[in-house]
């Protein structure tokens, strides 16, 4: 038998540092070591009892069959209501997609939209998976370093310097993993003003941590601050962090219907 040769796209991807560190933590815990695990975004409390109870009840009722790729009508309604409650922005069922976790939704969005040579702006520090998901889908990550002097946040000047005719996406993660940086409404507005000059650029706003915030006021979404960009924003979220449901693998995104339709073709 000939030696297995992985697809070329596999060679573009580095091993996830957080996954490797998490595996080492599990090994040490199995040896009886006491370890404070800060490797992955895992809440330190269990899934709430009413959620577990509802899942058990659904299983008992036989609600274990195939559904639409965009979930059950009840789930769609719950997601649409949640988005509108938090942002004030109305979406229709044709403008949301649901997947096996926010990571899968992001990967599928890139798969549905990137061609070879397309660039994706990735502010750094960043979640380790962003550049590799871009590379796996033949895109080119453009890493923009955001230092302590800017609060580890992308500035309008840095954004403008990174954008060009090849740019397809800008990733905006707020609250940020790993820094915890949160963009204010005025900071989001300033970024939106730059994006207005680049109408071909889409924005992926990763808002999975939007309910884990200990500051004053509340988290703002780019689509809420700049509703005129709604047709170019894919707002990604899920239940993993806020509800301690990481293992349940339920993520979703809201965005323009044409992009959502392309994503759903791949689900």
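-> sequence recovered:
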């Amino acid at each position: 038998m000939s030696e297995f040769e992985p697809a070329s796209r596999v060679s573009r991807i580095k091993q996830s540092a957080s996954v490797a560190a998490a595996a080492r933590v599990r090994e040490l815990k199995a040896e009886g070591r006491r370890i404070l695990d800060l490797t992955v975004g895992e809440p330190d409390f269990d899934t709430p009892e009413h959620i577990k109870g509802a899942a058990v009840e659904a299983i008992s009722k036989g609600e274990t069959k195939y559904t639409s790729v965009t979930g059950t009508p009840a789930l769609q309604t719950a997601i649409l209501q949640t988005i509108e409650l938090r942002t004030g922005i109305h979406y229709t069922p044709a403008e949301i997609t649901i997947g096996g976790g926010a990571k899968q939704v992001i990967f599928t969005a890139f798969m549905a939209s990137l061609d070879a040579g397309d660039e994706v702006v990735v502010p750094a520090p960043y979640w380790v998976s962003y550049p590799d998901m871009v590379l796996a889908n033949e895109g080119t990550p453009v890493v923009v370093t955001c230092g302590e002097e800017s609060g580890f946040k992308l500035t309008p000047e840095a954004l403008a310097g990174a954008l060009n005719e090849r740019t397809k996406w800008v990733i905006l993660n707020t609250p940020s993993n790993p820094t915890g940086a949160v963009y204010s409404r005025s900071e989001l507005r300033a970024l939106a003003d730059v994006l207005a000059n680049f109408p071909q650029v889409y924005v992926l706003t990763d808002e999975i941590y939007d309910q884990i915030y200990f500051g004053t006021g509340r988290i703002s979404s780019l689509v809420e601050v700049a509703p005129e960009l709604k047709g170019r924003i894919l707002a990604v979220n899920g239940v993993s962090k806020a509800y301690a449901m990481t293992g349940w693998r339920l993520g979703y995104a809201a965005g323009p219907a044409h992009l959502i339709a392309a994503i759903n073709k791949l689900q």
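The domain at 69-265 is CATH 3.40.640.10 (Aspartate Aminotransferase; domain 2).
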